UniProtKB/TrEMBL annotation:
<dbReference type="InterPro" id="IPR011067">
    <property type="entry name" value="Plasmid_toxin/cell-grow_inhib"/>
</dbReference>
<dbReference type="InterPro" id="IPR003477">
    <property type="entry name" value="PemK-like"/>
</dbReference>
<dbReference type="GO" id="GO:0003677">
    <property type="term" value="F:DNA binding"/>
</dbReference>
<protein>
    <submittedName>
        <fullName>9448_t:CDS:1</fullName>
    </submittedName>
</protein>
<dbReference type="Pfam" id="PF02452">
    <property type="entry name" value="PemK_toxin"/>
</dbReference>
Length: 147
C-alpha cells in the first residue's frame, strides 16, 4: 500500500480496541474505515444535492410567473431553434461546458472542434440555415446534455 503518513491520536481505550480488532494491520484497517466513511459522506452529499434539485424543480413548476415567461420564450423562438457555436481554437483544453467533436466525414468538420455550450444562440431557420454540413452522433449529443 502506498500513500502518505499521518499521525493520529487515539485514546488508550480506543487504541486497545483497535489493536484487538485490527491486529498488527492498524494502518490498513484505519485507511479502509476512513475510505468507507468518505464514500458514505460523498453519497450523502450527492443525495442532498438531488433533493435540492428536486425541490427547486418543483418550486419552478409551481411558479406561475416563471411559467408565463417560459411560454413567452417558447412563442418567441417558435420559428427558430437554439444553436450552439463551435470553435477549432484550443481544442486540447475542453472545459466542463464544452464537448470535443472529431473531424470525421459524418460530422462534416474539416478540423477537430469543440461545442461551446455556454454560448447558446437563437437562430432563425429561414435566414440562417442554408445547407446541412454534418451530423453529431449520439455520443456527442449525450456529452452535450451532460455539459
Amino acid at each position: 500500500m502506498t500513500g502518505k503518513n499521518a499521525n493520529i491520536y487515539f485514546s488508550e481505550k480506543t487504541y486497545d480496541r483497535l489493536r484487538q480488532v485490527a491486529g498488527p494491520k492498524i494502518s490498513r484497517f484505519v485507511n479502509e474505515a476512513v475510505e468507507e466513511k468518505l464514500q458514505k459522506k460523498q453519497q450523502e452529499q450527492k443525495e442532498e444535492l438531488r433533493q435540492k434539485l428536486i425541490a427547486g424543480y418543483q418550486a419552478n413548476v409551481k411558479n406561475k410567473e416563471l411559467q408565463k415567461e417560459l411560454e413567452i420564450y417558447d412563442e418567441a423562438i417558435a420559428d427558430g431553434l437554439i444553436g450552439i457555436p463551435m470553435t477549432t481554437k484550443d481544442v486540447e483544453n475542453v472545459r466542463l461546458v464544452e464537448v470535443f467533436v472529431k473531424n470525421t466525414p459524418e460530422t462534416g468538420l474539416d478540423y477537430p472542434s469543440k461545442l461551446q455550450l455556454n454560448y447558446p444562440r437563437t437562430i432563425d431557420k429561414e435566414l440562417r440555415l442554408i445547407e446541412k454540413l454534418g451530423i453529431a452522433d449520439k455520443e456527442v449529443m449525450e456529452k452535450a446534455v451532460e455539459a
